[in-house]
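Case study.
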Amino acid sequence: MLLTAALALVCTVAPGFFTTFAQVIDLSGNVVDPLKTEGNKAVVLVFVRTDCPISNRYALEVKRIAEKYAPDKIKVYLIYAGADETADAIQQHLRAYDYNLAALRDPNHQLVKTTGVKVTPEAAVFVQGKQVYRGRIDNRFVAFGKLRPAPTTRDLEQTLEAVSKGRTIMRRTTTAIGCFIS
Amino acid sequence: MTPFRYSIFIVLIAAFAAVNPRAQSRSAPTFNQHLAPILYEYCAACHHPGGSAPFSLLTYQDAKKRGKLLTTVTQSRYMPPWLPEPGHREFADARRLSTAQIKLLQAWVDAGMPEGDAKHLPPAPQFNAGWQLGKPDLIVKMNERFTIPATGTDVFRNFVLPIPVEKTRFVKAVEILPGGSQKGIGQIVHHANILIDRTGAARRMDAQDAEPGFGGMEVSIASDSFDPDGHFLFWKPGTVPWVEPEGMAWRCDPGTDLVLNMHLQPSGKPETIHAEIGLYFTDTPQTIFPMLLQLEHDGKLDIPPGKKEFVITDELTLPTDVDVLGVYPHAHYLGQDLQGWAILPNGTRQNLIRITRWDLNWQAVYKYKQPVFLPKGSKVMMRFVYDNSAANPRNPHQPPQRVRAGNRSSEEMGHLWLQVLPRGKDDARPLLQEALMRRRLEKYPADYSAHFNLGAVLQAQEKHAEAITQFQQALQVQPNSFVALTNLGASLQALGQLSEARAAYQQAIQRKPDYANARYNLANLLLAQSRIDEAIPHLQAILQFQPSDAGTHNSLGSAYGMQGNRTKAEEHFQQAVRLQPDNADARTNLAFVLALQGKFDESIPHYEAALRLNPNNADAHNQFGVLLARKGRMKEAAEHFAQAVKLNPDDAGAQENLRKARALIK
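After joint prediction, the assembly is written out as follows.
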């Protein structure tokens, strides 16, 4: 808490020195704030890694959910939080998995810290700037290497269903299984 | 302003120190000295650039990035994947970390993942990009590509790959490149098994749908004859292919197919498989014959929905001394606790394997570090436990359903395969096969294949009366089995019951007019009874659908020879020899018919070849002696007559020839 507060202060005090320190950028390097929700009913951040087999195995499911709720003005971003993942590598990854979603980089983990995600894949849902869900996409993975043939609970989809129907959202978190964000 | 900023930096530094303590004590493990040796030995085989794992763990940067993952997956023993419990038996290439090694990984992460002094870093292991054993002698490829969908459950698929060899070869090693020249496809292929199919059965299964290959997790090939392979041909990522010891290479005849049984895992994007199999030949033929013994009890697999602990067992008493070389347990997604052991005749117990957390994804063949000796009379036991409750996340059915045995991943299996090498100088495999089939009949009294196989193995031991009983019981279960009818005929014929044998063959031909074995046996029976005109049409019929059958050409040549048609006889013997140069009977027949036509010089090399192939043929020695005598080579002729007499002292003709030859030499 102290650290974040201090950093914010430093940024205001010494702009220029810390411009790229804690910012979310798109693949061209432009600073972006995905949590500004103007025009969107909700924003979904799905944290992934190019080389995480678990998040890769979810590619089709993430695309399906994004397409399903796009008409409800629910915007899905892919967030690459690995500082070691270059924009080129991410571009290649998007092509390989046929992702047509907006992809952002969070190399300094501003979004990781804001949301509290620990692994890839993990999702965070924001409605009017407030986080209403953080956790797994569904319960297919029970542990590393231990998975159900099909999920029995689709947590992310349930949340988005409620958002799209305008129902009252219970804030909740679940534990996701995946590659640790470091 | 300035003092304010100064104070903030102090806070920052303090915060970083708290989050990421860099303070390294003297005893803290380092990557270079402590981690690298573990990662190189246990992880790098898959986790190297271009390897089968999704990321590399060769460098400090690689490991540091995944410190928490390393501790989590090693502590849960998900990685390195190694299912057998310790203390049950030592296996070659075991990939199990010790508790101390796992603690060391944690201590390294706790210490802030220090790199350490570069002088301690051992040389990194080197990996070939393509074939691990070098360029294969023969590469066979899948004839079509197969695409795995981007998502869904795992795919179990079998692909038939014919081996284009023109003569019998011996295969000492098999290597699989799952993706062919593509890289990284090893992540998709979890494991692969290879079956040897000498019957063409897999080709027929493949032809049942338009897709490349056919589905199923463990394929069994029904064989007409007792022709066990005795080899595990198993591949998993990150292992160096197994090379059979001298004398244990397996036989690969022309017409043999390999069936590549692959477990494929969707990756998130569609993947195309175009596997290649590399074969490594040796000139040393197989002289050591192991055998695969299967314990199983699929017939008892009828698991009620919700049942948490469902047990099946099986046992087999060994009829002979064996050394167990390896073990391969197999169950599907409900399998939990898999166990194999043996009780020796003196009552002591020998553990063979125990897996308490079965995981189909990491199934493997385990080879023992030291073969396990089991004396005759040992009882091999298996006990498998299944969980068909909703609490088993891998349960293919939610809510749970009744599950029975089957080849699909939603069905179950319970198999414990052992690779054994019988001791002693006689081939004890028929004894083992007999024990297996008798045990099978205890479990499944009306099992066609058990009766049939038992009949075949008794027939091979020339226990024809017992074999006949088994074939008759097999026919009660499957009255239209032309194979059982043919084998029944052969045993009847061996006992001299010729009219019954003829009837059995004729029934087989009625049911399957293009079944060569039935026609061939019937034709030869008719020839033996001098019913040449009846035999010839059967032999001609076989050549209609199997024009390259050397044995049939040989029999047809004999038939024409018996009719006095030497030209036609020679024509078919020539064909037989061309198709199968090492067929001693065809060589002898060709030599004889050439000699009858006065073509002595052409005849001589065939007699020589025939007697090289079978030096114990008394008739051939006598005939060759006559030919040599006609050519004036009396001394050599006498030697062959002498051989003929030695082999068959009752042969008055050879005795007379020998006497005459010796007289002429003097």
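Observations recorded in class. The two ends of chain A are 19 Å apart (CA to CA). The first strand of chain A starts at residue 25 and ends at 26. We will return to this complex in the next lecture.
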